[in-house]
Amino acid sequence: MTTSHPPSPVNFAEKLALFNEHWQPRIIAEMNDYQFKVVKVEGDFVWHSHADTDETFIILEGVLRIDFRDRQVHLAAGEMLVVPKGVEHKPFAEREVKMLLIEPRGVINTGEEGGDMTASNDVWV
């Protein structure tokens, strides 16, 4: 018989305090095949899309702008946005933003674009 342990709460602020790098998501939990990642961002990211999955942005602190080819969306703390799969987008933060991402395991932050801003995958805090 397998004994399961009760889950422990995850504190976003505590996890975010463990690193300083921008645009480098860190995994804090998994549910089925989905990962919950905290990330700090500042400045401009790259245009990219994810062909096989939607991407969820939940703003914990700050204001994030997500550029789309035809418009911009501004998100403040306490707001979220789901970017549908295949939709090209580019996040931008004038000042540091702390957020939670929800994505399937193995998703690369820059999608198919690659380049210098591609983060290491499966890094836990």
UniProtKB/TrEMBL annotation:
It comes from the Bacteria. The keyword Isomerase applies. Keywords: Isomerase. SUPFAM superfamilies: RmlC-like cupins (SSF51182). InterPro entries: Cupin_2, PKS_Associated_Protein, RmlC-like_jellyroll, RmlC_Cupin_sf. The keyword Isomerase applies. Residues 40-101 form the Cupin type-2 domain. One of its GO terms (molecular function) is isomerase activity. Pfam families: Cupin_2. PANTHER family: 16.7 KDA PROTEIN IN WHIE LOCUS. This is Mannose-6-phosphate isomerase.
